[in-house]
Amino acid sequence: MTKLSDNLSNLKEFSVSQLSTLLKKYIEEGFTFIKIRGELGRVSRPASGHIYFDLKDERSVLACIIWRNTKNVESEFIKEGLEVSAVGKLTTFSGQSRYQLIVSDIAPAGAGSMMAMLEKRKKKFIEEGLFDSKRKKVLPFLPKVIGVVTSETGAVFSDILNRLNERFPRHVILWPVPVQGKDSSEKIAEAIIGFNSIIDGWDFPRPDLLIVGRGGGSLEDLWSFNEEIVVRAVSQSKIPIISAVGHETDNTLIDYVADRRAPTPTAAAEIAVPERKKLLEKTNDLGERLIRPIFSKINQDWKNLDQIGKRLENIKYILADYIQRFDISVVRFPDILINYIQKKKEQLLLIKTSVIEVEAMGKDLLVKSSLLKALGKDLSQQIDDLVRNKKNMLFNDSRLHDSLSYKRTLSRGYTIVRDKKMKLVRNKGAAIEEKILNIEFEEGLLAVKVSELKS
Hints:
Strand content: 15-25%
Distance between the termini: 125 Å
Helix content: 40-55%
Shape: rod-shaped
Radius of gyration: 54 Å
CATH topology of the largest domain: Rossmann fold
CATH class of the largest domain: Alpha Beta
CATH architecture of the largest domain: 3-Layer(aba) Sandwich
Strand order of the largest sheet: 1-2-3-5-4
């Protein structure tokens, strides 16, 4: 008994509080941030707003706490029996002589738990209308600047960049972010909001289109793209967004809220820009289709002009008939007038020799004279009208001849090519056969010699 007392006297003595403080220091310094996976048990939510629960497995139980002021922690899914992964700092609680985990982040761990939470969030966003097709924006046909939100170390960015350069090179801006792990969802949301915040006058331009993506992985690897903060950042973006998360079989919540979903990051680049080669081919084809009917119309108009020119050559014969009739009328008019007057004179002589009284004969003579004057005046008016009408017809026909003449076409800068016999040369083949060509301008003919053919 004396020996045991001597040993106790040699040991350093601690109070209970000192020992608790020492253990707390050792545990907190030995375990900074740790990640623990287990099954939820005994969940308590007191009025203080803190959440107390246990993490357990087959043999052990760990007490956990989520303080009410812990940021970016979703607590709706924390229910007894759910498998989760929790991140936090290990410490002690001296009041009950136990160690516990102060949780800073928690998420479902098992595939079943994560899928259940995913479906719950999906249903919530559907009810809010975030996945409604009416909310989706139209992608620009050929964006000048493309913003990419992804990791700077993975192959995703290089795949997107290479595919864009192959199809249609664009100005690309990378906003590097972690695509999985702690704080990755916050960084992804910050990048989307940051691109939307760019205004004119900054050192780099505001993108016309965003690609948000990463490579393939497990459900846990892709979980950052299922977080509410990322989904809401995508839904509130004023810039159209293409989601390109994982492979074709992978699905995340931002695929539903994005304006367009691409099965892979490479496919996102193909959606973002058209293929320049095909675009040029289509442009050239449309150009040819546009030019073809124009040339056809020009050729048809030339044919019509040629036919009109041939018809105008006969107008002088048509006008000659009217001119001849007019000349005949002018020549015959004096004879008609003289004959008419002569007849009237003869009638007057007959009247003089009649037994009519002188006074009656004088009155009759005055009446006849007045009638003769009226007839002469009327005849003169008719002759003037006839001459004026004929002159107008001749003037109009002459103007029609001038307006329809091929020389009017020459005055607008066109020319006519004729051979040495002054026949029309209608195509290049006919021109090659001739040694000498006559080119008719408005001012006259110009003889040229055919020396060589150029394609």
